[in-house]
Design goal:
The structure holds two protein chains of two kinds.
Chain A: H1 2-30, H2 38-59, H3 65-93, H4 98-121, E1 127-128, H5 130-137, H6 143-146, H7 149-155, H8 159-177, H9 179-189, H10 191-196, H11 201-227, E2 231-232, H12 237-251, H13 256-270, H14 272-280, H15 286-292, H16 295-310
Antiparallel strand pairs in A: 1-2
Chain B: E1 3-14, E2 17-28, E3 32-36, H1 43-50, E4 58-63, E5 66-68, H2 73-78, E6 81-84, H3 96-101, H4 112-126, H5 141-154, E7 159-163, H6 171-186, E8 190-195, H7 198-204, E9 207-212, E10 215-221, H8 227-235, E11 252-263, E12 269-280, E13 283-287, H9 294-301, E14 312-315, E15 324-325, H10 331-336, E16 341-344, H11 348-352, H12 359-364, H13 379-391, H14 408-421, E17 426-430, H15 438-453, E18 457-461, H16 465-471, E19 474-479, E20 482-488, H17 494-502
Parallel strand pairs in B: 3-8, 3-9, 6-7, 7-8, 13-18, 13-19, 16-17, 17-18
Antiparallel strand pairs in B: 1-2, 1-4, 4-5, 9-10, 11-12, 11-14, 14-15, 19-20
Helix pairs in contact in B: 4-5, 13-14, 14-15
Classes of the chains: A mainly alpha, B alpha/beta.
Chain lengths: 330, 511
């Protein structure tokens, strides 16, 4: 039982990282833009947020946790949106190929983060922002202790975990029950139709891509300042998470509400290798571990196959996903 | 203030191509105006400038007496102009109501229930049949068109533009649509219909405006016009609109299709137990609402579609006693077996020709295996290309020019020329005249007639029922992938074929 609890306590924060990544990408893809730069954007967001927190902690005389959160969150959003803006400009205004641009953005975001990371690391293998970590990982007071295990499972996380769930619900409502959502979906499904209805396709694509990037960026921030205990090190870990977020978008069939359980399921599957052998009472060798870590991807492929077999229109990607729109195209 | 819309000296160019040159046109209140012209004459471009899709290079537009700037679709809506495009502008995964709500004015409250109620009222007023909760991808073409019209009316359009509204409708659906259009005229609305079908022009419109190669030719009252006078204005010269149909001579069985069933990749039955024979020396027409299995039928015969078990497609060559089974053979195996099967597919530049290659290379697609040398033989295809260019009057800068740069009609001439040059025994064509001008269309009809007289079994999949009735000896009607009767082209009526296209008769599968 205790292993199971530990497993869930690990899975939910993990799921939260990719949930942000996936929700941002869903928003972007709903506008018809396939942004494969999610890993790069998560790097940008994570690094900018960490950098802001790190310098604030070092330079302020009396660092305040709220200011720290505010600063790092703002920097994260700005950097991630800048990434989204680069993608938007290239693919919407210049109509560059979205796949190539997205992959380039991934490499770019990783490169930028690791390049500037060198100056913060200053020769050591990692650096830390403990105050920011404390602020981000702070559990809900009172509730998280009152009811034992239940409290632990439900209330024992940093505020971004709850933010993600709320955001998923909000996105669901916006996409499916508001004028803005209807128009955004129309842009992604059939931009010519949206255009003929008097909707500004370019505006929607820009906004959805930049705001989507901002949401994805929070995933990177959460990874560094909460999940990774406020430690920055030059690794490729965020990239792997970014791709998992892209897989999650497909897994959820482009529905924000599905990201809630989908992300946690991915978290459970990802940590399968560490906890399942314990529950079953067996030991597995390291190469098997690597194989087990593959499970989320395998599940995504299975979902893809199932969805493509059933061919239900509602479960398909936006019809004009990945295509540039030009009104006077003939 | 006599005119609802006035265009004055409007010009629009795309790069070097002049789509509209100095066009002036008036539309009155409460009239049905046909905008007539051949494909590529600039009808749609002109109307797109009224609906805000394109912006004119020069010229003025007056709506209800006032000069206006229409730089985006929403400007057009604000002026009461609504256009139903030939390629419907609908979002497939949305319901009818959602599609209507998409165009709501920002000032209006976003309330889908109210939208639905108002749309239902419009449906009632003009007698539209529409399920407002249905998703667009579940709708038939005619339902989608109805939705488009409701959408435009919902936005308060007083001037309606319909682009080729009957292109995809059956005769019965067309009649229904015309009734609706007359209802709208009675309501004081101005309706502009873009079309190239003469008999419809004469039936529905009050006046006809004619465009030719981007230029405005004139407007005539429909009551003073005839088919031939309109054609002359449209083409610029007198055109013989007759198709010679000779009696089939000595028909020989060439193809025998039995119980042909084809499933799509998603497992949907596209062709259901189709059986018929095709004879040399006759033209067998295939009619049906598009998407009822025509494409799959030809492709299955040509070896491009796998068929279900129990299906038979047998070819009868010189030796009538020994038919050859075609199913299970690839196009190459069919050719190697000495079977002269020619196929002019619907998708000319996708399946028929390689767009980026010139005429010579495209000729070689059929002959690349000939000769024994390591290098390909380019001389014979070059001669063939020259010959086709001469005989069919293909307009191209050179036979080296990539065929994708040619106009639709010339592309089709290249394709048909090549297929005929292979001296086929069976010639299959799918929508052979789609998008072609009248002259080229008649050239193609004459070519098919010639082939028939030579004893070729011609299979002609068409969409224009008038042509099918004039050209074909027998007409097979497909409905929902089933054969819904094979009728005599000389005695049947358009109404009969139209009925068969939409209403499956019981026990109609076997003939």
């Amino acid at each position: 039982m205790s292993i199971l609890i530990a497993w869930i306590l690990r899975a939910i924060p993990f799921g939260t990282i990719i949930m942000y990544g996936a929700m941002g990408e869903i928003m972007t893809e709903k506008s018809g833009n396939l942004n494969l730069g999610v890993p790069g954007i998560m790097y940008l967001g994570g690094f900018a947020g960490y950098g802001a927190a790190y310098f604030y902690e070092r330079l302020a005389a009396h660092p305040n946790p709220f200011v720290c959160i505010l600063l790092s969150l703002l920097c994260c959003l700005a950097a991630a949106m800048a990434g989204g803006l680069i993608f938007s400009f290239l693919t919407i205004t210049l109509r560059a190929n979205q796949n190539v641009t997205g992959l380039a953005l991934t490499t770019f975001g990783m490169g930028v983060a690791n390049f500037f990371g060198v100056f913060i690391l200053n020769g050591s293998s990692y650096s830390a922002a403990p105050l920011a970590n404390k602020a981000y990982a702070a559990k809900i007071p009172f509730l998280s202790e009152k009811f034992g295990t239940v409290s632990q499972l439900l209330f024992g996380y940093g505020f971004l975990v709850y933010g993600a769930v709320i955001l998923a619900v909000v996105l669901h409502i916006i996409l499916n029950h508001t004028r803005v959502g209807l128009q955004l979906r129309a842009v992604g499904e059939n931009p010519a139709t949206a255009d003929a209805s008097g909707i500004s396709v370019t505006k929607y694509k820009y906004l959805a891509t930049c705001l989507g990037a901002a949401i994805s960026g929070i995933g990177g921030l959460y990874y560094v300042l909460d999940y990774n205990q406020g430690i920055w090190a030059t690794t490729g870990q965020i990239e792997a998470l970014g791709w998992l977020a892209v897989a999650l978008v497909i897994f959820t069939t482009w529905k924000p509400l599905n990201t809630i359980w989908g992300a946690y399921l991915f978290g459970v599957l990802y940590w399968l290798y560490q906890f399942l052998p314990g529950i079953l009472g067996i030991t597995v060798s390291s190469y098997v571990t690597d194989l087990i870590q593959m499970v989320p991807y395998v599940v995504t492929i299975v979902v893809l196959i199932v969805v493509s077999q059933r061919r239900k229109k509602e479960n398909q990607p936006p019809a004009s996903l990945g295509l540039a729109y030009f009104r006077e195209d003939r | 203030m006599e005119y609802a819309v006035q265009l004055k000296h409007v010009t629009k160019t795309f790069g070097k191509v002049v789509a509209n040159k100095d066009v002036s046109l008036d539309v009155r209140y409460g009239e049905i105006l046909s905008l007539l012209g051949e494909n590529g004459s600039g009808k749609t471009t002109l109307m797109n400038m009224l609906s805000g899709i394109y912006y004119p290079d020069s010229g003025q537009i007056f709506v209800e007496g006032k000069q206006v700037e229409i730089s985006a679709p929403k400007d057009a809506y604000a002026l009461g102009i609504g256009m139903v495009h030939q390629h419907f502008k609908l979002v497939d995964v949305f319901t009818a109501t959602e599609n209507i709500a998409l165009g709501l004015d920002k000032k209006e409250k976003f309330d889908q229930k109210a939208v639905k109620a108002k749309a239902a009222a419009i449906c009632e007023k003009y007698h539209f049949e529409l399920n407002l909760d249905q998703k667009v991808y579940e709708m038939s073409v005619s339902q989608k068109q109805t939705l488009e019209i409701v959408k435009v009316l919902y936005r308060g359009a007083r001037i309606l533009i319909l682009d080729e509204p009957t292109a995809v409708l059956t005769p019965q659906e067309t009649e229904k649509l015309f009734q609706v259009i007359r209802n709208m005229r009675r309501d004081g609305k101005s309706v502009i219909i873009i079309t190239h079908k003469l008999h419809e022009v004469l039936e529905i419109s009050d006046r006809v405006a004619i465009l030719r190669r981007g230029e405005y030719i004139g407007t005539v009252d429909t009551k003073d016009a005839t088919e031939s006078s309109l054609t002359e204005m449209m083409v610029g010269e007198k055109v013989e609109l007759n198709i010679d149909r000779t009696e089939p001579v000595n028909p020989k069985k060439r193809l025998s299709i039995q119980n042909l069933t084809v499933y799509s990749r998603e497992g949907v039955k596209i062709l259901d137990d189709v059986s018929f024979d095709a004879f040399g020396g006759e033209i067998l027409g295939i009619a049906g609402v598009s998407g009822n299995g025509q494409k799959e039928l030809l492709e299955a015969i040509a070896g491009l579609q796998p068929a279900a078990k129990g299906s038979k497609v047998r070819f009868f060559g010189e030796d009538q006693e020994k038919p050859v089974e075609l199913l299970g053979k690839s196009p190459k195996q069919i050719r190697d077996a000495g079977i002269h099967l020619a196929f002019v597919p619907e998708d000319r530049l996708g399946m028929g020709l390689v767009g980026s290659m010139g005429m010579i290379e495209n000729m070689m697609l059929k002959s690349y295996e000939n000769g024994h040398s390591f290098l390909t033989d380019r001389k014979t295809p070059r001669e063939l290309a020259e010959q086709i260019k001469e005989e069919l009057h293909v307009v191209t800068p050179s036979i080296q020019t990539p065929v994708s740069r040619l106009s639709g009609g010339n592309v089709q001439k290249v394709l048909v020329g090549r297929e005929i040059a292979s001296s086929p025994i069976v010639l299959m064509t799918a929508y052979a005249v789609r998008g072609l001008d009248i002259n080229t269309s008649y050239t193609i009809y004459h070519l098919l007639g010639e082939q028939k007289e030579k004893g070729v079994a011609v299979i002609y999949v068409g969409e224009d029922l008038d042509v099918l009735l004039e050209l074909c000896d027998r007409i097979l009607v497909l409905c929902g992938g089933k054969v819904n009767g094979i009728v005599d082209g000389r005695t049947t009526t358009k109404e009969d074929v139209g009925m068969r296209m939409t209403n499956l008769k019981k026990g109609a599968t076997r003939q």
